[in-house]
Design brief:
Blueprint lengths: L1 E5 L3 E2 L3 E3 L4 E3 L2 E4 L10 E3 L2 E5 L15 H15 L9 E10 L1 H16 L4 E6 L2 E14 H6 L3 H4 L4 E7 L4 E7 L2 E10 L3 H8 L1
Parallel strand pairs: 1-8, 8-10
Antiparallel strand pairs: 2-3, 3-4, 5-7, 6-7, 6-9, 9-10, 11-12, 12-13
């Protein structure tokens, strides 16, 4: 049977985030099944486990296949708690993702193509449970704007508002005029919390 599920994913430089999970943007690649009790993903002949050692900063995450695998982890983790998903089901995934405002125009089409994986049915083994997924649709959104729309009614009453997103490696800002993003006044500065830590050290 075909089922549908929306899984929103934030590909952070420090952490991957979904609606229910946060985990470090780090990955181990193994040829053999990991020890009992360790969470793993088996996909196309390789075993993957999560790592606390994050992947080095990537401005364009489509250049590193590990971010696709981390996305599969995020999807599988969201599927794991869904009792209505049966082993024979094919789950069509809607995948909303975020991009920093300064990088949006340049990268959004590339991200949507990369993370869709041609819409093929992908077979995942997550901790011994088989899932068949098809990433049917990927939509990229401006991160700051998406966050600010959670209080959109309030922002629409204000002539100007600035959204600021302080992440691990970047600080992004975006000007909102009466509820609409002004992409002429935005930037993604490579100065986040991790770079601040490093300067302090």
């Amino acid at each position: 049977m075909i089922k549908k599920l929306r899984v929103a994913v934030d590909h952070g430089n420090r952490n991957m985030k979904t609606c229910h999970f946060i985990f470090t943007s780090g990955l181990n690649v193994l040829d053999k099944k990991p020890a009992r009790g360790e969470k793993y993903l088996h996909y196309e002949g390789k075993y993957y486990t999560l790592s606390e050692q994050r992947i080095p900063y990537q401005r364009d995450k489509t250049l590193d296949f590990r971010f696709f695998i981390l996305t599969l982890f995020a999807i599988a983790m969201e599927l794991e708690g869904k009792e209505q998903i049966q082993p024979e089901d094919v789950v069509q995934i809607q995948l909303p993702i975020g991009l920093p405002p300064k990088h949006f125009a340049e990268l959004y089409e590339k991200y949507e193509v990369f993370f869709r994986a041609e819409g093929k049915v992908l077979d995942l083994n997550f901790n011994g449970k088989i899932y068949h997924i098809c990433i049917q649709e990927v939509r990229a959104f401006v991160q700051d704007f998406a966050a600010m729309m959670t209080i959109g009614q309030n922002i629409m009453q204000v002539p100007k508002a600035v959204g600021i997103d302080i992440g691990g490696f970047t600080t992004d800002y975006l000007l909102i005029r009466k509820g609409k993003p002004d992409m002429g006044y935005c930037d993604s500065l490579e100065k986040g919390v991790i770079t601040m830590y490093n300067q302090i050290i």
